[in-house]
Amino acid sequence: MPKALVTGASSGIGREFAFQLAQKGYDLLLVARDIDRLEQVGLTAAQKFGVKYQVLRADLSQLSDIKKVAGALSTESDLEYLVNNAGFGLNKALHKSSAEEEKALLEVLVTAPLMLTQSALGQMLEKNRGYVINVGSVAAWITSGTYSAAKSYLHSFTESLYAQYASKGIKISTVAPGFTRTEFHQRANINMSSMPNWLWLEDKKVVKQAIDGVMKGKSLVVPGLQYKTLKLFADVLPRVVIRGFSNYYQAKRRGN
Q: What gap in Å lies between CA 206 and CA 145, rounded to an integer?
């Protein structure tokens, strides 16, 4: 049976990817820091959908753990699906964050997707078949600190892979969700109470659209009409306007 590896699979969007891919018949390799929650996700998927699962505890802010997961991928001959979903957020201006925090953000959002995708491609190219979904963000289109910068890299990285590997039977997409109801903001100590309900997405819909999109060969999937509209504005508005909006949003979010 083909396998799917999902990072950040213990909650939120990652957990939903695990369930929806299990429903499609994929055995699961689940990666996150919280081994107990991973086990619960895997057990639930196994009971509901009759798949097998493995869990791998890894902190993807640590290069040694990224290498551990990449090594596991390189030996998975049945690997068909990779979801780079693990997230990291800092609710701080650059002068208030530490170099260690910024390095951790880059490891999770840049280094891990790079190294895991590179490792997965080795297996996928042998079969001329595979799917990679990189979980980006609408933040890539604005200037919301180093988080935006990292997600912008991920979008560009994915687009370049899409062009390079589509002819080899490997479909690679970025899904760019906006505000989604998960634990992400709470863990990053970001107060989202002022955000109106119409801006929020549900993780089930985000994941379904991402999976449908990569199956159809889309390079970019933007869930939600509100965020499709935002993408249109981001493409046509002058960057000075984008910077002004981003600065206002950042100041409001941090309360300064």
A: 24
* N residues, the chain: 256
Q: For residue 30, give the nearest of 54, 3, 49, 48 by alpha carbon.
A: 54
Q: What is the pLDDT of residues 40-64, one digit of tens each?
A: 999 999 999 999 999 999 999 999 9
**Distance (Å, rounded) from C-alpha 1 to C-alpha 220?**
28
| Residue located via tokens 């990292």 | 150
pTM: 0.87
Q: Coil, helix or strand for 223? A: coil
Element of type H or E holding 81: strand 79-84
Q: Give the C-alpha separation, 108 to 90, whole Å.
A: 12
Cα angle 95, 243, 228 (rounded to 5 degrees) comes to 120
Domains of the chain, with CATH numbers?
3-254 (3.40.50.720)
Q: Which residues of the chain have pLDDT under 70?
A: 181-200, 242, 244-256
**H-only helix segments in 128-217:** 145-165, 184-187, 203-215
End-to-end CA, the chain: 52
| Angle subtended at Cα 13 by Cα 102 and Cα 186, rounded to the nearest 5 degrees | 55
The span from the CA of 58 to the CA of 35, in Å, is 9
Residue 5 DSSP label: E
